[in-house]
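Weekly modeling sync, notes
Attendees: AB, CL, MP (scribe)

Item 1: holo prediction request
CL wants a bound-state model with pyridoxal-5'-phosphate before deciding which constructs to order. AB pointed out that an apo prediction alone won't tell us much about the pocket. Agreed to run with the ligand included and paste results into these notes for async review.

Input as submitted:
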Amino acid sequence: MKNEQNPSVAPAVYARPNRFEINLDAVAACTRQIRLRLGVDVQFFATLKSNGYGYGVLPVAHTVLRSGADALSLASLEDAIALRQSGIRVPILVYAGVLPSQEVVNAFQEYDLIPTVHNQVVLNEFLRFATKPLEVAVKVDLGSERIGVPFSAAEKFIRNVHSNPMFKVVVVNSHPNVRGGTHSREFLIRQYREMTSLRQSLADLSPQIKWFPMASSKVLRMMGASMRSNAADPGAALFDPLEPAEDSPHPFHALKSRIIEIRTVEEVPFPDEVVFDIRKGMRVGVLPVGYSDNIHRVNAGCVLVAGRRVPILKPASLEYVRIDLSDVPEALVGDEVVIVGQQGSERISPQEVMRVQGAARVVDLALDVGQFIPRVYLSSAGQA
Ligand SMILES: *Cc1c(COP(=O)(O)O)cnc(C)c1O
């Protein structure tokens, strides 16, 4: 069942004994749920922004493409190039972010990536540097304060781009954003109507614009498939099921470390000079994971040792955090510590961590796991 793969540069043999275990089967299950919700004839762009929401763009990309996604979308041009270099051939849409230069435009051409043209300045720069015709996306802003051509100017802008022999518009997309207040549904429906009317008014173009995605995860969650258009580009829902079941595995499988030091406190000459709550006779364990790994944001106030919950002694330091092992006398240096996940019959779930941290979205937890912690992939499908 276990397939371990470490895409980080440092050889795993030299790494501190920390690991972020990712369950790719759970990502595959989330992807299949999205496909079911969309139906078979909707172009499904799996959005893998921010290094695949912290889960690792390459292994996740291969997993979602095996599990129902048709195409990929993301903001990082570097990641897009890495995806092509790993052999992925499906359409890759690159959202707004990188500013066009000669090198950037060359890369879009060489790696056959779809850039986003979201205003006249960006359009002009692509025109200046392009040496051959490019397939592009136009981002339309249907809400407020979002990137894109305003709805009122969109049709004219898109016609202008499409009629230029250097460009072919293949995607017109929008990313509706609502706060989740009382008018969210109403506002989303209005944005969907605008997108639909834009699509109809561009129907005469030849060649036709292929895809009009606007359903992100929030839209799919709130509106079902009613706003799916002929394409959709959800991201967060790849890592947080649309239809969670009690026993379904979560992509965030575990965060683990090991004890590197155990000391019993013999005397405390200046207790007020000790950064954590200390008392004589306390057994203090040390883990080689600190706030440079964001451990202060990725914990539920306790960890699992020998199948039991033991308190974290706040605050973490740069590379270390202490735990109170007073109630686990059998704990030894080298023992495994579970910060998130299951050990024996005890479990600290990602949801519990987010509750303790007062954070809103469970999907953001993986983004917080520091970049120095190796990602380890679990999958029944073998090599990711
Ligand atoms: C992030 C993003 C998405 C996906 O949003 P989720 O809420 O993660 O599903 C879709 N489209 C655009 C343009 C985005 O930037």
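Recorded for review: The pocket of pyridoxal-5'-phosphate is lined by residues 47, 49, 95, 175, 216-218, 233-237 (CB under 6 Å).
Action items: CL to compare against the apo run; MP to circulate these notes.
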